[in-house]
Amino acid sequence: MAIDMRQFHQTFFEESLEGLAGMETELLRLEKAAADNGHDAVAADPEILNTIFRAAHSVKGGSSTFGFDEVAAFAHVLESRLDDLRDGRSRPDRRVISLLLLSVDCLRSLIIAARTGKDVDKDAVDGVRAQLESLESENAVPAAAPVMPAKSSGTAHWDVVFRPHRRLFHNGNDPLRILRELSDLGELKVQADLAALPTWEQMDPEACYLGWNIELIGPVTRETIADVFSWVMDDCTLEVTAHPVQSLAPRSITEAVASMDAHADTLRVSVPKVDALINTVGELVITQTMLSQLTTNFSFDNLSRLFAGIAQLERNTRELQESVMHIRMLPLSFAFNRLPRLVHDMSQKLEKKVELTIHGEQTEIDKTVIDRLIDPLLHLVRNSLDHGIEPPAARLAAGKPETGRIELKAYQKGGNVVIEVRDDGRGLAYDRIFSKAVERGLFPASANPAPEEIAEMIFRPGFSTAEAVSDVSGRGVGMDVVRSNIRSLGGTIEVASQPGSGTCFTVRLPLTLAILDGLSVQVGAHTYILPLVSIIESVRINPEQISRPAGSAELYGLRKEYLPLLRLYELFHVEPRSTDLAQGLLVIVEADGKKAGLYVDDLLGQQQVVIKSLATHYRKVEGISAATILGDGTVAMILDVTGLTRLAHASTGRGPVPAGDTFTPAVTPTLN
Amino acid sequence: MQVARAMEQKELSSEEQFLTFRLHGQDYGITILKIQEIKGWDKVTPIPNSPAYVKGVLNLRGVIVPVIDLRLRFGLPEAERDIFTVIIVANVNGRLAGIVVDAVSDVINVGAGHLCEAPEYEGQENREFIKGLAQVDGKLLVLLDVDRLVNPDSLDKSTAAAPVAAAR
User: Is any Cβ of chain A less than 8 angstroms from the Cβ of B48?
Assistant: First the structure.
């Protein structure tokens, strides 16, 4: 019985992609080692090259086992070059390493193409392969092994199912003639179908009982095949289908790499995590047994034991929840691994010297967070490289070491994961940001804002101080996107900078997306959950601080700024306990860099809630991000502050709206 | 209370089973294949700024399910909730929705021969929800198209619907 190999494909793809990521990391290490130790790098640490070699070898082995010939052929060439390096026939100079890195990209796109069934840019792949092969001839070493031929794209592979009707012979047709004619078209495999053959006694010698399954490989079209059968068309059932093969046609490599993330739909979990889960379930079962024994013959003497049992059940449940959550956790190295390559390529392009150090890549975070963290992280590092780190000459002039440093640090702090991206570059140009902000009317020219307030400006949409727009950065899209991406993950981002000595971006993320720290607030009979990340503070309302400028929403003067006052009961059209502002509380919230005051009846308390989608069975509701289930089994809505400001904007709809995209005053006036 | 698993609905072949329920004195039927379960009336959490007939959402064993009041959907006066008030949980292509009705009555078989088209009326806004009419024991049964009833697009329409004229 044949084994269906497809069941292993997914594992092969994942392992190969992981192997390639490892190869990339090791290649970068090799380059660094080569720079440090000269040409004896390979001898100095043979393990680096061995690791690369093993990865290439398992990709080759796997791909030929599963019939991904293109991948295997490419991996074979790559392996030969690595062999040359290992045996000292060639040297790991910068050019060779760059080419090897490029080959890793090619292999990755080939594997992704095989996985998605999409096409790959054949020219680019062939180009890299040609370069790899030419590298060999330069080194004047005889070829190690023949390269597997890639399938030529001109031929087609057809499956033909030919079932003549019984009376085929009556019209003078001969199926053999048809088969012979087909064999002229290309390589032919024919199998006769004897299923319809009756017993000897019942057989009519003048009827055709046979059918044929034909496989035809050759440069033919469907029409050509149909032509062969044209005489018998009315006397048979005929099916001509293309043989299911993966065909590879042009597509850009970068595109394929980009689609890689979209396909991360399986999760590899370490065995200890599963063991922990099983242990917890075991304990849960024991507790459950204990409780049911206790309740079958219940007397009040056992009351204390019952309470103890319930407490244990509670603990087990919490542990179970934690271990299940843990299964979704992955180390941040999955996101960080992409960065060394980026720094390598970009520093070459910008002609800067940069050293990237990574700490705490073992910190674990929810898989969904990782997937969506990669882009903002790439952007932050790119930003540090382009804007932060100075060119070597400028660094020396400033009395700093020639090589710049970018440091990535991740650690867990409470229920959050903190990621710091720190560089020792030139820092934020506060004066330039300030003058730009004044120019754009974000500050009055006379204002004297604190450095943090100025730094905050870089997160504004369309804000850029770069004089020249490069292909790396400077278009002013970016930091605001980074911030909104991180916000969408329930996190925050801050920047701190010391002019001349560097900038540090601090990203705080929740450990998981499935659970949210919230504050429950009450409006009339309703309970809503407000995400803690969007709350700044809550204050008692002083009626004297409320102003109602003509043609504008209500404003509340808090210390030195005016915030729009949103009455939640108005936005949601529910009955409040009181419409008198002095009776309730104002929760100061922030979304997209804009603050607002949210009027609620009362605060109920802080709690963690499990996020449940509202859109699965209903639809998205403005002002609501999701729902959750409270301890008593009722459903509560989780508020979406951005949506609430939009809602307020739509419902008031009155008054001139400042240039910003909400009614929040773009200029925060200073109270005297 | 699992009544039936929602399955791919077959064509109105020889006979089909319908769950019948009462609403404002009239009998209605929904194909049983689209019904996941029936549960008693339970307090729901209102969804802000939704049409009046979307009463809110319900926690159905950890799943958040919207609940539609069929009386309000059809523009009928709202009724007091009593012990007969039930929520029929429909499963249409994996989407769940609860439908509040006055009371469930029975499961009946309706043969294709007993079905007829709903007559055309002027200003009949609810006609889109009616799949057909059937005569059962001399009484009129209005068969509803549950797909349309719980379709999220039609849930968006916040217009108050006119009474079901065909029901009389």
Answer: yes
d(CA A381, CA A394): 20
The tokens of A48 are what? 């680096």
Domain ranges for chain B, please list them: 15-167
Contact check, Cβ <8 Å, B47/A623: no
At residue A497, what are phi and psi to the nearest 5 degrees?
Answer: -150, 145
| CB contact at 8 A, A473 and A466 | yes
d(CA A73, CA B95): 47
- The single-letter code of the amino acid at B33 is L
Q: What is the Cα–Cα distance from A553 to A556, expressed in whole angstroms? A: 10
The pLDDT of residue A415: 67
Six-digit token pair at A494?
């801050």
Task: Answer for the pair B71, B100: CB distance below 8 angstroms, yes or no.
Answer: yes
Which residue of A635, A637, A644, A646 is the best one to mutate when testing the B interface, meaning the one whose CB has the most B CBs within 10 A?
A: A635
Instruction: Please identify among residues 86-125 of chain B the ones whose CB lies closer than 8 Å to any CB of chain A.
Output: 95-97
Which is nearest to B102 in space by CA: B85, B83, B126?
B85
Average pLDDT over residues B10-20: 70
Using a CB-CB distance cutoff of 8 angstroms, which residues of chain A are in contact with residue B49? 571-573, 621-623, 647
Q: Give the separation between CA A559 and CA A564, rounded to whole angstroms.
A: 14
**Burial of A560 per CB tally in 10 Å (0-12, 13-18, 19+):** exposed
Do residue A621 and residue B47 have CB atoms under 8 angstroms apart? yes
Contact between residue B35 and residue B88 where contact means Cβ atoms under 8 Å apart: yes
**B155/A574 Cβ within 8 A:** no
* Nearest CA among A407, A410, A598, A376 for reference residue A487: A376
Residues B119-139 have a mean pLDDT of: 73
Note the pLDDT of residue B101.
92
Binary contact (B96, A573; C-beta < 8 A): no
**A→B interface, C-beta within 8 Å:** 526, 571-574, 612-614, 616-619, 621-624, 627, 629, 633-637, 647
Q: What percentage of chain A reaches a pLDDT higher than 70?
A: 85
| Architecture per CATH, B15-167 | Beta Barrel (2.40)
Q: What is the DSSP string of A120-159?
A: --HHHHHHHHHHHHHHHHHTT---SSPPPPPPPTT-EEEE
